Amino acid sequence: MIGIDVGGANLKIVNDSGAHIHYCPLWENAPITSLLDQYVTAPDDPAAVVMSGELADCFESKMEGISFIVDAVKKVFPYARFYGADGQFHDCAVPQLAAANWLASADYLRAEYPDAVLLDIGSTTADVIPIARFESLKGLTDLLRLQKGYLIYTGILRGNIATLLQSVLLDGTKTPASSEYFAGSADAHLVLGHITPEDYTCDTPDLKEKTKDASLKRLARVVCADLDEIGTDGAYQIAEQFWNKQRGLICDQVQRVAAQSAARQIIVGGIGAQLFSKELDGIDLTKELGSCADALPAFSVREIARRG
User: In the chain, what are the domain boundaries?
Assistant: First the structure.
């Protein structure tokens, strides 16, 4: 059994050898089928699949995206089954498949953590999921999750720094930020030591190096400057203020949802699990699941399918 999570930017796969994450942006004619080919062991291999990539703007509608993903997967795994927002598996493209990957994670974890709030912090977004309210979560769309505060569009790697920072303080001077995509989340986290260059798996905003020096230069651009204008210290100030804003936004919402759902514990998965579990005094799922915590929906849908 193989577990597959087809996101807009990443293809995540879990099999007996562990988790495998491929940067695979759907808006760039992503080779889903050829990437999956290498994981085939037999023509009738079973596969359990979730997705969120149907929202990519290369598709005219979510249903077009769902159909594209289902067809791409079935070319490799013809017996694949797809987990939907109704908590059920489906054999073909149906609307319920849209953005159901977070629900699969909650479905798997609720047996062991029935009274927890799950934070799954990935490359692009943060899912805040009150597992204790699992039945009420069924059928929620991304629109409804945004409105409820269950989906926050900020992550560890992708996303414009300026989406959270409209201005920064540079040596005490309030400085408006440019809204151009000059620097991303990964640039801030790299210079602050939260990730390594090897963890910087998405494209950089300028398609240049994934080094600390290159990230500092990109951060300077956020205030329309060269690095020698604001100095390394100025670039660090931008990174630190972004992190403070991001940390506060996510942690405050997790605590709010925990209080609303009377949760007794917080569990954290995704590529930011180690970072945010410390901030929230929560349980780091990487200690239990290893690298599979970085691909939590793919791991979870596989386990749900295996248990029947």
Answer: 2-102+296-307
In the prediction, which pLDDT does 43 show? 87
Question: Region 181-205: what's the mean pLDDT?
Answer: 97
List Cα–Cα distances, 259 to 7, 84, 145, 154, in angstroms. Answer: 30, 28, 17, 22
Q: How far apart are CA 127 and CA 106, in angstroms?
A: 10
Q: How is residue 61 annotated by DSSP? A: S
Choose the CATH number for 2-102+296-307 among 2.30.30.50, 3.30.420.40, 3.30.160.60, 3.40.50.300: 3.30.420.40
Torsion angle of alpha carbons 129, 130, 131, 133, nearest 10°? -130
Which of 28, 49, 89, 93 minimizes the C-alpha distance to 67? 93
Residue 14's identity, in one-letter code, is V
Helix orientation angle between 227-260 and 273-280, rounded to the nearest 10 degrees = 60
Q: What is the pLDDT of residues 212-245, one digit of tens each?
A: 999 999 999 999 999 999 999 999 999 999 999 9
